[in-house]
Amino acid sequence: ETGVTQSPTHLIKTRGQQVTLRCSSQSGHNTVSWYQQALGQGPQFIFQYYREEENGRGNFPPRFSGLQFPNYSSELNVNALELDDSALYLCASSWRALSRHNSYEQYFGPGTRLTVT
Amino acid sequence: GENVGLHLPTLSVQEGDNSIINCAYSNSASDYFIWYKQESGKGPQFIIDIRSNMDKRQGQRVTVLLNKTVKHLSLQIAATQPGDSAVYFCAENKLFNGGSQGNLIFGKGTKLSVKP
Questions:
Q1: Per-residue pLDDT reduced to its tens digit, B40-55
Q2: pLDDT in tens, A21-60
Q3: Angle CA(A97)–CA(A102)–CA(A103) in degrees, nearest 5?
Q4: Are the C-beta atoms of A43 and A35 separated by less than 8 Å?
Q5: What DSSP designation does A25 have?
Q6: Least CA distance to B42: which residue of chain A?
Q7: What is the DSSP string of B26-90?
Q8: Contact B49 A104 (CB under 8 A)
Q9: What is the nearest CA distance from B6 to chain A, expressed in angstroms?
Q10: Which of A29, A53, A92, B63 has CB 3.0 to 4.6 Å from B76, enough for a Cys bridge?
């Protein structure tokens, strides 16, 4: 187990609704990344948060947004849900130092399975 | 553009045999690679990583080989066990705007099945 936790484990929403997914990072980690994994595919990078700010983003529309809190936990919000948003949403935590080379290791949580009907 | 892909989508091996999972990448500037194992219903589990200044790294029963000349990465699992059955992903670290942090680019994965 990595120590990264996510909630809820499963969620069913209707097209057009909004959803919030939550992640608690591993102890000692200050950076959180979110990934979307469609069935049978590899995870796709959504965005990354460091020091409560988004510092990198993949090819996802603005209706995907996030937050990071002072305790380094994070939320992923998706507005106006579409059927194609059905996927496993993964959170990964890592450590980023302020002044030296960083660790690239990312440790994943178990994911939230989102189904949009 | 950058791409991390896998040569074989499925691999079936006999218990006790060695497994080799291959991966190709296209970004010659990539300096860090990771192998993850993902079991059904779970998140990816870190197995082993390697930086571009190395060509081989060994862990417990696993070895990662990096050939920068042909941009090829492989994961070798010794004495494969039924518990090794999973989907294996290689991932490449892509830096943000030349900075020191980045995101992972994953391939589609190889499903490893171990026959008892």
A1: 889 999 999 999 999 9
A2: 999 998 888 899 999 999 888 999 999 998 899 988 999 9
A3: 115
A4: yes
A5: P
A6: A110
A7: --TT--EEEEEEE-TTS--EEEEEEETT-SEEE-SSEEEEEETTTTEEEEEESS--GGG-EEEEE
A8: yes
A9: 11
A10: B63
